[in-house]
Amino acid sequence: MPIAIKDERAIKQIAIAGNIIATVFAEIDRMDLNGMQTIELNNRIHAVIEEHNAIPTFLDYRGFPKSACISLNNEVVHGIPGKRTIKTGDLVKIDVGVTYQGYIADAAKTFPVGVVSDSAVKLMSVTKEALKQGIAQAQKGRTISDISRAIQTVVEHHGFSVVRELTGHGVGTNLHEEPMIPNFVSTGDNAEIKPGMVFAIEPMVNSGAYDVITAADGWTILTRDDSLSCHFEDTVAVLEHGNINLTRVAES
């Protein structure tokens, strides 16, 4: 399928959805997550989204049972909130989708709980830098592989690995649209980037190997070698000159 081109109105609506996600993350930044169950965190995220007259996109999407994906430590993505208790030293990856008047933004952020290991701090820093460099390549006239190459180069320079079974994607009127945006250079479609394209760019970075497995719940993706994983994501719109981060969490 062709990559959808969004007009100015659509981008403004996606930006409203993105600002709601930024509000969610700002609230979580102020919270003490230590001792909280992941379902409690999910419920607060759901409430904030509804307070802004929006819909949690993930709830019931392809059968996903909760409003946010909350993944801990060696879990890469798609963790189902439940009765697990968050504790000091954890890396908590929170992935949120918001639908506002039919338009969708998607973003993720990794939250360290209390004092985390030096290796975890480095993993977070590298993943954030990889996202920053990937976003920098989302420019008119460049290609999807330019985004992929920028992310892979940053990650592998520091001795980490990018997950290969999961990718970024287009987003806007559907949660997952064309194109797929790998976090490594692949042999797939290498479309030219054009103004009006909107991308969810999301490096998922492991401290060990890139191999992953799916948990028995059918959703949670974990590192095969039990290594730590980190995830940051933003929704970005390509403009005639440059781009704009619609979720504005990359530098937070």
Automatic annotation (TrEMBL):
Binds 2 divalent metal cations per subunit. Has a high-affinity and a low affinity metal-binding site. The true nature of the physiological cofactor is under debate. The enzyme is active with cobalt, zinc, manganese or divalent iron ions. Most likely, methionine aminopeptidases function as mononuclear Fe(2+)-metalloproteases under physiological conditions, and the catalytically relevant metal-binding site has been assigned to the histidine-containing high-affinity site. One of its GO terms (molecular function) is metal ion binding. One of its GO terms (cellular component) is cytosol. It catalyses: Release of N-terminal amino acids, preferentially methionine, from peptides and arylamides. Its EC number is 3.4.11.18. GO terms for biological process: proteolysis. Keywords: Aminopeptidase, Hydrolase, Metal-binding, Protease. CDD domains: MetAP1. The keyword 4Fe-4S does not apply. Its cofactor is Co(2+); Zn(2+); Mn(2+); Fe(2+). It comes from the Bacteria. The keyword Protein transport does not apply. InterPro entries: Creatinase/aminopeptidase-like, Pept_M24, Pept_M24_MAP, Pept_M24A_MAP1. A divalent metal cation 1 binds at residues 95, 106, 233. Substrate binds at residues 78, 176. Monomer. Belongs to the peptidase M24A family. Methionine aminopeptidase type 1 subfamily. This is Methionine aminopeptidase. It comes from candidate division WOR_3 bacterium SM23_60. The gene is map.
